[in-house]
Amino acid sequence: MHNLGEMVAVFQNRIFWIGSLAWLVAQILKVTIDLLSKRKIDFRRLVSAGGMPSSHSAFVVALSTSVGFTQGFDSALFAVSATFAGIIMYDAAGVRRAVGIQAGILNEILEDAQKHRPVGEQKLKELIGHTPVEVFAGAVLGFLISWFLI
Predict the structure, then answer these.
(1) Pairwise CA distance, residues 20 & 10, whole Å
(2) Model-level pTM?
């Protein structure tokens, strides 16, 4: 049986907080980039998926890099974290990106159908995945945050 002190230890886990900070910085950058490019602020970007840079990539690379720096890049824990980071980044740029493209096509079909007859108005979310550049930018961000904070 675990005691409360052990469960609260996550709040003292430096590696977890470095990953979380990388995620937060990536999300703030999304809001900032949107502000600069679209001239309007959208606070929903703080919690949404997709866009530049990938916060998923920033989080998992910061986490994995921090594990490497503290446990060794030859450790089993680094191997596990790096493998999961690779899977998450592949998914962000592959599967989730494809879902976003499909959502865009379905939304176009929906708009065409609405012009001819009444159809439901709820559109699918298109900004779900990332381009490879967004994933790479998130990975670089995560690495740099981990590099400076570990």
Answers:
(1) 12
(2) 0.72
CA atoms within 13 A on the CB side of 52: 11
Tell me the helices (H) and strands (E) count for the chain, helix number first. 6, 0
Give residue-wise pLDDT tens across range 72-114.
999 999 999 999 999 988 887 777 666 766 777 777 777 766 7
Listed as own residue / partner, the contacts of 44-47 with beta carbons closer than 8 Å and 24 or more positions apart are none
Helices 76-93, 132-149: crossing angle, 10 deg rounding: 150
Cis peptide before 53 (omega within 30 of 0): yes
> How close are the terminal C-alpha atoms of the chain, in Å?
32
State the DSSP string of 30-62.
HHHHHHHHHSS--GGGGT---SSSPHHHHHHHH
- Which residues lie closer than 8 Å to 97 by C-beta, 6 or more apart? 128, 129, 130, 131
From CA 93, how far away is CA 84, in angstroms rounded?
14
* Interval 38-54: pLDDT, tens: 888 877 777 777 778 88
